[in-house]
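quick one: cytidine-5'-monophosphate bound model?
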Amino acid sequence: MLSVVPSPITVRAPSKVNLHLGVGDLRADGFHDLTTVFQALSLSDDLEIAPAGSLAVRVSGEGAAEVPTDRTNLVWKAAVRLAHLAGRAPLVEIAIAKGIPVAGGMAGGSADAAAALVGLNELWDLGLSRDELVAVAAELGSDVPFALHGGTALGTGRGERLLPVLSRNTFHWVLALAKGGLSTPAVFAELDRLRAHGTPPRLGEPQQLMQALAFGDPKQLAPLLGNDLQAAALSLKPELRRTLRAGVNAGALAGLVSGSGPTCAFLCESEESAVSVAAELAGAGVCRSVRTANGPVPGARVLSGETPG
Ligand code: C5P
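yep, here:
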């Protein structure tokens, strides 16, 4: 009898920026309660998933040398978890082509885990529903459910409880990638330290920001962007102040640290403006490299008949 070997599956997973990141107090479980508005961006990673004799993770592209390829990689954990649920062995090779900066505050590792869940559900023909995948995603990390969801969403709890947010139009971003990364736990701990020694300002609720998203006007949105982790990221990497200033001087409507940093995200008025801000930032010597991106884009999805790129 002929046995059919499934062909490799390619999955694209988006990065994210937090348009609003309100951080509550430290909880007993070591996490912080968040009120956040995520937007999925076109800067993404592609995963190629193929049947293999044993589980293996390979990484190429942006920051590949810093990504572990062993059981500590979130993709490895996703494969083991899903295989366990399916009652089978995780016999796959997963090749990650990174476009999202590593340890950059753009949820690159979470995006890869979400892509692995979507891809393996298809490769192994598991037929798990979105809700079932979201439950596994939330066990893997706070940002993994959003990487499945995509678009624009309000996140509460650890950031894993999501509600879609109406967002009109496409927004144009410039991303300034920093030299070196920041550890997410270290940035949260720095915010706790700053709060123990003073009263850094805290963001209010994101109602106005959500209205601006529904309206679709970047000029209205720009002054409402905010991130409680920014003070902590700047405290650990003071040179980011120069990067933020340079982006606004180059013509961006606003700039903020993305998530726990150190990537800085700049909202621009149009695609043309983003290209010009990116060119000026690249020449200013205030970051390692510069990317343009747009959002919102869909969550992790299988590319069928599309050229990965
Ligand atoms: O959930 P994830 O593994 O991405 O979280 C990494 C770390 O970031 C946590 O161990 C915690 O230190 C910090 N974190 C937090 N509050 C959140 C999410 C993450 O303190 N809501």
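Residues 155 and 162 are 5 Å apart (CA to CA).
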